[in-house]
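Support case: user asked for a sample of complex input and structure output to validate their parser. Sending the pair below.
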Amino acid sequence: MNAVGAPVRKQGPARHGTIHDRSVAGRHAWNLPELDVPDAVIPSEHARAGRPGLPEVGEVDLVRHYTALSQRNYGLDTGLYPLGSCTMKYNPKVAESVAGLPGFQRVHPLQPDDTVQGVLEVLWRLERALCEITGMSRATLQPPAGACGEMTGLLLMRAFHEDHGGGRRRVIIPDSAHGTNPASVRLAGFDAVPVRSDARGLVDAGALAKLMDEDVAGLMLTNPNTLGLFEEEIEEIASTVHGAGGLLYYDGANLNAILGRCRPGDMGFDIVHINTHKTFATPHGGGGPGAGPVGVTEELVPYLPSPTVERAEDGTFSFRPGDARSIGRMHGFHGNVGILVRAYSYVFLHGADGLKAVSELAALNANYLARLIQDDFPLAHPDMRPMHEFVATAKRLRDETGIRAMDVAKRVIDLGFHPSTVYFPLVVEEAMMVEPTETESKETLEDFAESLRRAAREAREDPDLLHEAPTTTPVRRLDEARAARMLKLRW
Amino acid sequence: MLATLGLSSLDELFDQIPRGVRLDRALDLPAGVSELEIVDDLRSKARRDRHADDLVCFAGAGAYDHYVPSVVWALAGRSEFSTAYTPYQPELSQGVLQALFEFQSMICELTGLEVSNASLYDGATALVEAVNMARRGDRRRVLVSAGVDPRFVETLRTYGRGPGYEPEIFEAEGGRGGAPDVGDDVAAVIVQHPNVLGILEPASDLFEAAHAGGAKAIQVFDPLSLGVLAPPGELGADIAVGEGQSLGNHLAFGGPYLGLMAARMEDVRRMPGRIVGETVDVAGETGYVLTLQAREQHIRREKATSNICTNQTLMAIAATVYLAWLGPDGLAEVGRRCAAKAAYAADRLSDVPGVSLLHPEAPFFKEFALRLPRPAAEIVDALVERGYLGGVPLSSAGEDVLLVAVTERRTREEIDGLASAMKEVLA
């Protein structure tokens, strides 16, 4: 089999160190017009004495350096990127072009409302579309990422309880949850209480009922959950939580699995965050920017961050400050608007029918891929049908050969693909969490499956291939322990 | 594919969703459209916005119309960067990782501090993270100079509802912060320099007061000022945070921008967010990885230093390219031009009858506040009609206060034009 995906290869451009190593005194790329006003005098007590050690390079050096760096990097445009829970689907290029229109890209955040009617309308329409998709009443677009959406939702939960008797200190999260959930819970001033998953991989409803009391502010849940399984008892779970006065928080990491099929609001959730870079294909930028809008039910609307975008009867749009119950402000301005414009283009490009097709094809691709590799990497929870992603396990392979999920992942790199997520969720041994997304073709899925099956064969026949992998990449396995022990965090 | 799965319809893939929660109708959204139609839709909306290419932009207050050179997005926009995920597989992510290592290095060089992370969401949330770093033990109080951007303070107040602190403002004197009383329950003293009015603060005196009381000194800084102004590390700041938009990032109606943070090495294990470190591979080749991950949410869960996962990596790559384009001399030149043009604009505008500088004696960098004879919002509207985005009304300082920002992009002609327009409007 030929390597299909990755031109990120050792044979790529030579490494020339950092941009600082390319620096030659006196060389520069910058150019600016002649100063056309009297020169400035910086008061001596405020003036900088030395020069910062920035690189001195010409424009062509700069271009070659960062072009070479980009060629040492794998992106979604390079090939399949099946990181489970990350939803790395193809990012339509049209989203980039529209976000670059001067009417969006060159607008100052504090212009008078009547000069920004276009972008306000985009935000207003996007908010309504997100509410329809999730079954919520209103949403804030301020949070710049999913984790910030969680923080927003938890602060809303806190403000709501303070107005309704207060004193609730605990938030329940499943043991399979993302690490951001417990971290956000603590930052919002609550204690995180884990609830275990049962043998099926679902929240143990009995264990949850025992944990629920007057001290519980709410439950944070991803559905389908982090194992890619739909929480079938969601109605009972919702009634247990609501019955004890708690609120239900929906972590939108997996919203792409249910678009147009069911809605968090109809399942009983009160607060929902959405990761636009997952569900609505806004590119992830090598780690960001994202956007994390948060939708809420009617009773939580007064607590939303301020300001909100409103439409008057005459059709004009404006920012309106929230009332005294608003939790305040989650971002310096209005959130990652450039990303929200991209999300708008994705939502309205797809429309009602297209969004439903997204969840259908995502589930079809995930189930098909799971089937192709099941003999070597069985599902961790084989009794349940996965939705848009699945968690397989390399436990048997490890027991038979000593080869671990990480070794398989590294070998897959040599075979031309970005590997799946490994060792997450933490509750599954030798986890391989795979999310192919709806945008990959049958042929790509089959090639990827073959790379996994081949790695499994090699684990038995020639395990050194896996122990030593990757060997084709610009660098091989890196010494992470050394990085943490001998800290070198700058040139 | 369905046949392989033994299924006869796509619907069967969703059988596990209980009937009671299924959506038995189509989403109430328009049907999907072609790419051409979505482009037309968004073009027509974008056309309704005025923007910094059709209005001469003197608006600032945290977001600035600095020039973005062509190389910045030609490189940062390469899809190997823009369509990558967080670099969890370092062998396939050396490009992003090395660019972030260079970013961290440049932020350290700018700030005169020892360690930087790989970006936070924006300036306001970076300040929240700095306060989380500083609060420890019995030191819980947070003192904020009145010169700090009110949006930053509002953001701090919002996030403070979780851990349960309320930022305490210490009063400014004549637009410059006076020294606060720092007791042994104070975690941090926060100073913005240049402050929200553009004024150069006596930051080192305030930081000395912070240290005398055992508190952390936090400076909110403007990265483009650091070619001409003394760096936070030299002024005595322990943690420096700032809005990084001015480093090669577009105005974009407020985001995506990036939060900058630098600190001293002794605090590295309390820092939030991704940090890239240099190491070697099994063959001894230099490479880069995410490091000190034991601080982070995916390892430490509720004990993490922050909940941040996704940050603003692509904006940090743009900032890196921009700073490499500038180099040390370009950074100083941009700063000098901003300061010179702002000084010229302040002279011209304060000559307009009825207009005066709010703090005529205070030294400033690229922004200054004017007192107007009428409400600032009204004047801004009238200036828009004449082709100028004349500034940002600063209601926290009074409804007749206008904050004017002047970047290296503004020409003498544009500044003279704004002064004439202001004269007309007030006549």
